[in-house]
Amino acid sequence: MSGTHYETILYEKSGPVATLTINRPDRLNGMTTKMLREAREALTAAADDRELRVLVLTGAGKTFCPGADLQMVASGSETDQGGTTDDFRVPVLLHTMPAVTIAAVNGACAGAGLGWACACDLRYAAPSARFNTAFLDVGVAGDMGGPWSLPRIVGAAKARELYFMPDKFDAQEALRIGLVSRVFPDERFREEVGAIVQRISEAAPIALRTMKAHFVEAERMDFASYIELESAHHLPMFLT
User: Fold this and answer.
1) Which of 77, 175, 226, 227 keeps 20 to 30 A from 132, CA to CA?
2) Around Cβ 29, how many Cβ atoms within 10 Å?
3) Whole-angstrom Cα distance, residue 129 to residue 169?
4) What is the DSSP letter of 230?
């Protein structure tokens, strides 16, 4: 297993599978500008890794990511770091990279953390997971692409409701509205997600990467144009 040292995240890769762990458990994995930069750096490298088939996003300890570390924001230590627009490209990388991205939501998932989870291809939750858009509660309009990604997952009206009335909800409600695909018991959560990761990582690599690309391209195209693209990729694949 290979790994690169970061201060706010862990990035580890074993064969075709990588795991990015949000790693500030002493601050409940609250997001900082440094975390944005480190995650962007790791995910940019992951997007260029031809061997990578699956990337898992999760949190250290008992929390996924509750959003921005408001204590650091209030103290001014965050704004002094001078974040740039590029620092907010993490959800774009999660959504568009060739590898299949999976959010393993192991605890509180709110605000910017929810935006990261929504950007992934798949989401699975432990019963201990709690969700909240949170932005209006702190008087901001939000970031990390939720108004783009969440309607595509739960529908336009439900996404608006979750943003305009930011109540907390549990893993079973997340399952009911389609935000997560499955809820696994806490004691087996890592094992169950690991089994899904292994199954996907063992799929035919060219077909898997092309399939992911198809989903990304389909969001930008009309139906007829997409069929042309799909056919151009599908027929030659029989020769591989």
Assistant:
1) 77
2) 29
3) 9
4) H
